[in-house]
Amino acid sequence: MESFIEWRWYILSLIAFVLGWLLAKRKSKKTRRQLRFSSDYFQGLNYLLNDEQDKAIEIFLRLVESDWQTIDTHLTLGSIFRRKGELDKAIKLHQSLLARPSLPSEYKVRVLLELGRDYQLAGWLDRAEGLFNDVLKDSDYTEEALRHLMDIYQQEQEWGSAITVAKRYQRAANNSLKPVIAQFHCELSDKEFSRGDLKESEALAVQGLSIDENCVRASIILGKLAIQRGRYKRAIRFFKQIEFQNVVYMPLVISHLTECYRNQSNLKSLISYLRSLDEKYESISLIPVIVDLITEVYDRSSAIEYLSTRMKLKPSLDGVQKMLEINLSNVDTQESYIKEVVDQLMHDQSGYQCSHCGYSAKSLYWLCPSCHTWSGMKPKRL
Ligand SMILES: [Zn+2]
Fold first, then answer.
1. Measured in angstroms, how far is the CA atom of residue 122 from the centroid of ligand 1?
2. Cα–Cα nearest to 270, from 302, 232, 326, 317
3. In a domain, 96, yes or no
4. Separation of 194 CA from ligand 1 center, angstroms?
5. Domain of residue 19, residue span
6. Is residue 219 part of a domain?
7. pLDDT of 185-211, one tens digit each?
8. Cα-Cα-Cα-Cα dihedral of 243, 306, 335, 329, to 10°?
9. Residue 119 has pLDDT above 80, yes or no
10. What is the distance in A from the centroid of ligand 1 to the CA of 352?
């Protein structure tokens, strides 16, 4: 079935290719020549359908040379090859076009862009980078080339170059990339952190936050660095910023916040802060952690009272799990079975999900591995 759909898609693409060519040729008045062209084109098409792409490419190249105005249809054919994963054919077609001495200069830059995209997809990033840098000189295609270069540097994790190119793109396209540029700074900051250069790591995260004041990741890095230095008040300030940046990320820092307040012997303040957050925002559930803190600071019966009151107002799966856990002492077989079911549900449904493409994972990726959107993944609400 899948191969049938694939095949049908391929045929539809080819029909579109021929229609495109026919439309391009409508402008031409030389009917007799057009007829000869038609038969050549259909022969080329025949080769394509019979999987003899090399012969087909040869014919199409010959034809485009006699009328460069039809180049769009050839570029379409190239992108059909690329989308079908036949990169060798796409590359061959685009390289052959570039090798034609008669290729008009106004079309050259478009072929370079297409070949760059082939190389990029084939993983030949150095070659692709070279071509996109050539394209930059043409002001009509600067934005597109910069966007591809940014993707390449991101793929190669060359964050410094990614920042330079992204800033240039911002100016060229008059389009803000601040959240993405801030993420690039966070990547650099993480690198310095793992190298042990905490000062540089901090400077980069501060830069990230100054570029995008809503960068949750930079606040988390700065909060963790402050904890490392024993500056708990400063850490708390950074973590509390997340409420106003994007509150759904708040659950990520609850354990760090607890560490800070514990060190200041002020867990009561933390409980009231978390209670106010949980009451204010429907998108997060902090009930289980609040229950644990109430048990620790006050007593078990206060925790149960809080839990049962809150669960009536804001039911959640993790709240049910906490309810079963807290009643464990008087558990019977049936309840123990329910707890197992809820634990399993929690295990299956916990984690992070990309709001852009729906990709799910157990750990948080700031760059979605599936659709490559920054900050697309968010903690799931259970
Ligand atoms: Zn995604």
1. 22
2. 232
3. yes
4. 26
5. 1-103
6. no
7. 999 999 999 999 999 999 999 999 999
8. 120
9. yes
10. 11
Which two tokens mark 359? 């990709």
> 166 CA to middle of ligand 1, Å?
20
- With tokens 């478009």, the residue in question is 110
| 3 state DSSP class of 379 | strand
Instruction: Please indicate, yes or no, if residue 210 is contained in any of the structural domains.
Output: no
The band of 105, judged by pLDDT with boundaries at 50, 70 and 90, is confident
Same domain, 344 and 354: no
C-alpha 276 – ligand 1 centre gap (Å): 31
On whether both 277 and 336 belong to a single domain, the answer is yes
Find where tokens 């902090």 sit. Answer: 286
Residue 232 domain flag: no
Phi, psi of 352 (to 5 degrees): -130, 150
Q: Are 311 and 320 in contact (CB under 8 A)?
A: yes
Q: pTM for this structure? A: 0.80
Ligand 1 centroid from CA 354, angstroms: 5
**Distance between CA 349 and CA 380 in Å, rounded?**
8
Number of domains in the chain: 3
